[in-house]
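=== RUN LOG ===
request id: a7f3
mode: sequence -> structure
chains: 1
length: 203
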Amino acid sequence: MIRFTSTELRPLLTQNLGMQRPLILEKNLGIYIRIPDDRRPGEWMKAWAEGCNPSKDSGWSDVADGLIPDKEFSFKTFLAQSMFDAVLSKHCDLLITPVISDLSNALTLQKETQPPLKMYVPVGQYRDSVQWLYDQSLRHFHACVGNAERLSWRSQALRVLDQVIRLDSKRAKPADREMFNRAVASVTDRIRTVMSDGSLRYS
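=== RESULT ===
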């Protein structure tokens, strides 16, 4: 299965048209999903599959060949609303597998979402991520002035959650995990208070 994280997918899926825009799964010097870049006409935005980015992953070519044996591959697809929401709201990973349909005997893509795959880090880094989250929900949020700054904060906070929510440490103590969960909840609750125009929602 080809795995894409919410960290990679969020910039693509939050462009204009959202889930109405087709995604192109492609293999060509790595494996990625691409869509047109609204900010740069004629250019493409790419979300790289895990382990398949030539600019940062060692052994990317072998990983890509193991996932898609063809030298080059391109297939257009769409995301269902449930998958779109799972990636953007729950920070889920998107898993894609090219398969031959039993019904039509034609190539298709099998897609599913799963909770973010855990990435184990040293306990010090795990504890630092708690402070990073609290900086977002307390210091940075309260520094916002006006709707535009709150919208910018919301985008940044979601990107931070995309990265942090998948972290774990084998040496973390119960108290560390409790602090981590509270920090995640703090950022999530702050995000929910910011409406689509940047104004605040009061319960």
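=== NOTES ===
The CA atoms of residues 65 and 71 lie 8 Å apart.
DSSP finds six helices and nine strands in the chain.
=== END ===
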